Amino acid sequence: MFPGGASTSKISVSHQMSSHVEPEVLLEKAGRAAVITMNRPKVLNALNLSMIRQIYPQLKKWETDPETDLVIIRAAGGKAFCAGGDIRAVTEAGKVGDSLAQDFFREEYILNNTIGSYRKPYVAIIDGITMGGGVGLSVHGRFRVATEKTLFAMPETAIGLFPDVGGGHFLPRLRGKLGLFLALTGFRLKGRDVQRAGVATHFVESKKIPDLEKELVDLKSPSDTDVSRLLETFQKQSDLDSDKPFVLDKHVSDIDRLFSSSSVEGIVQNLKADGSEFAKKQAETLSRMSPTSLKITFRQLQAGAALSLQDVLVMEYRLSQACMRGHDFYEGVRAVLIDKDQSPRWSPSTLEEVSQEMVDDCFASLGEKDLSL
């Protein structure tokens, strides 16, 4: 039925595409449901500025449109919902002082905030890889449906960034120290575990998604409760992997204990002193991450625990611009995405060398350049 099936009417996208070029995002109506389809499967539906500029105004329009009852966001290709933002383009822009380095983050965060405060049911079908920018398009919405193909991570500390797109809001609100653990290590959650962790609200088997989408579209003037009931019905029929325990089950209390510290250095010390296989593995993971990113992320989640999503996004915009001014983001993108040598040379190269002053500087107000929501 999607994308572009008989029951959907195309909304003309702002710039005319020539017939042979696939639009990067499809914005359609199916009955009284609005449907956003991420449509760059070859690049795992990576989110770029032109997609943000198509999705945002349309979401605003649908929010007040009496003919639209709910919004579904989904993806084409079957492999990824959205593997993240197009950060390679952002670092290229940063090197030459192009405004994309500000515009991308600003407009992406405004979109995240719109999703977080949306007044109509918003259902994200995260059937596949969902990382970074893809998490921002889904996690703040009221309903997030994971499948056995969902692969979730916030892997930003490995590229000299931080878990942005509102990570400072949703991560510290996961149980115990789970969010801090996911944020610092970039640990990947799969399938049903994405729901068990609290990132997704529901779990539905991938083969049932077309039927779920059809029934969502058929709902008449649905309230949140109606949508919730439908999702629960589908979830009850999905018992795949239900007998498998949560991947971190055995480690939940270890995570809470080891990641309880007033500093990243303290966490590393806890992990090294613990000596268990699990602790050793986490210490080894953290040793590969950008020390600056780890310290920024630690403080971001600490502060974000008590802030609204709006205030978190204002803080994260400041951090994004600090990363654009710094060294590690460029170096991380080079090592992981461009040269793929996986050997970033971080500067500073140790946690001890990242001073409190350097961290404070990243959180400082940008004055009139601050994000305003």
From TrEMBL:
GO biological process: L-valine catabolic process
Catalytic activity: 3-hydroxy-2-methylpropanoyl-CoA + H2O = 3-hydroxy-2-methylpropanoate + CoA + H(+)
Keyword Transport: no
A molecular function (GO) term: 3-hydroxyisobutyryl-CoA hydrolase activity
Metabolic or biological pathway, per its Swiss-Prot or TrEMBL entry: Amino-acid degradation; L-valine degradation
Domain Enoyl-CoA hydratase/isomerase intervals: 34-363
Domain of life: Eukaryota
Subcellular location: Mitochondrion
InterPro entries: ClpP/crotonase-like_dom_sf (IPR029045), ECH_dom (IPR045004), HIBYL-CoA-H (IPR032259)
Entry GO CC: mitochondrion
EC number: 3.1.2.4
NCBIfam families, per the entry: PRK05617.1
Function: Hydrolyzes 3-hydroxyisobutyryl-CoA (HIBYL-CoA), a saline catabolite. Has high activity toward isobutyryl-CoA. Could be an isobutyryl-CoA dehydrogenase that functions in valine catabolism. Also hydrolyzes 3-hydroxypropanoyl-CoA.
Similarity comment text for this entry: Belongs to the enoyl-CoA hydratase/isomerase family.
Name of the protein: 3-hydroxyisobutyryl-CoA hydrolase
Organism: Fundulus heteroclitus
